[in-house]
Amino acid sequence: MLILALDTATEQGSLALVAADRLLLEYSLESPGAYLTRLMPGVEALLQATGRRLEEVGAIAVSQGPGNFTGLRLGLATAKGLAWALACPLVAVPTLEVLAAQLPFQPHPVGVLLDAKRQEVFFGLFRGRPERPEPLADPIRLPVSLLPPRLKPPLTLTGPGLNAYRDFLEEVLPRDIHWAPPEIRYPRAFTVARLARWRLEQGLTTPPAQLTPTYLRPAL
C-alpha cells in the first residue's frame, strides 16, 4: 500500500511517500510559516518526483500532536481533505510516539520532550519496541522546572524540547541520562508512515470528521 504521511507538529515538518515499508521519498518543510503555502505543492512535488499519482495513495497518515498549534491545524486539515477526496483510510499518530519510535532499540526507557512554550514542556515516557513504542505513562504538560524529578537514569531523552531548554537541563540532570543525537530529535514523516502502517493492520483509523489535534491544553 502507498502511504502519504504528513508531519507539521514542530518547526521542522516533513512529507513522505512510503510503499509497504520502503521509503520512496521524503521532503523537509523547514518552518511552520511555510506550511500554509508549501504543504499541497510539496505533496504534488513528492508524487511527481516518484512517478506516482495521487489516486494511487491508499492511506493518509498524519502526526496528531501535541506540538505547534498552527502547524497541527494545517497538517490535520490537509490530511482530512486528502482522505475525503481519495475516500481512503486516515491514520493519526501521536507526535510523542513518533519521536520515541526513532530510538527503537534502546535497552532503557525513552523520554520525549516537546517545547510547550511559556517555560513548559510536553512529556512522554516510552519503552522501545521494534513495531511501535510502548507508553509507560500518559503524556503530560508541565513546567520545565518540575521535569527533573521525573527523569531517572537509565534514560535516553529526545525531542526538540532538548534544544529549547538545553542550558537548564544540562545544569540539573545527571550525567548518566543520555541525549539523542540532534539529527533525530525532530519527528519524521517516514516514521509517521511506519507507525501508521501498524495501525492500519490493526484497523485503527479515524473518520476525517472525527479527527482533532492533540493539544494537551487549550489552543492560544
List the topology elements.
Blueprint: E1 2-7, E2 13-19, E3 22-29, H1 32-50, E4 59-63, H2 69-86, E5 90-93, H3 95-101, E6 110-117, E7 120-127, E8 134-135, E9 140-143, E10 156-158, H4 161-164, H5 166-172, E11 178-179, H6 189-201
Parallel strand pairs: 1-4, 4-5, 6-10, 10-11
Antiparallel strand pairs: 1-2, 2-3, 6-7, 7-8, 7-9
Helix pairs in contact: 1-2
Radius of gyration equals 17 Å
What is the oligomeric state here?
single chain
> What percent strand?
25-35%
Structural class: alpha/beta
Main β-sheet description: 6 strands, mixed
Task: Compute the average pLDDT.
Answer: 94
Instruction: Sum up the overall morphology in one term.
Output: globular
Would you identify the CATH architecture of the largest domain?
2-Layer Sandwich
SSE order: EEEHEHEHEEEEEHHEH
How many E strands? 11
Task: State the distance separating the first and last CA atoms.
Answer: 38 Å
List keywords for this structure.
alpha/beta, 5-stranded mixed sheet, Nucleotidyltransferase, domain 5, 220 residues, 6-stranded mixed sheet
How would you sum up this structure, described in words?
The chain has 6 helices and 11 strands. The protein has 220 residues and is of the alpha/beta class. It has 2 domains: 2-94 and 187-210, ATPase, nucleotide binding domain (Nucleotidyltransferase, domain 5, 2-Layer Sandwich), CATH 3.30.420.40; 96-184, ATPase, nucleotide binding domain (Nucleotidyltransferase, domain 5, 2-Layer Sandwich), CATH 3.30.420.40. The strands form 2 sheets. Strands 6, 7, 8, 9, 10 and 11 form a 6-stranded mixed beta sheet that branches. It has a 5-stranded mixed beta sheet with strand order 3-2-1-4-5, with helices on both faces. α1 (32-50) runs parallel beside α2 (69-86). The protein is globular and about 50 Å long. The N and C termini lie far apart (38 Å). The model has no long low-confidence stretch (mean pLDDT 94).
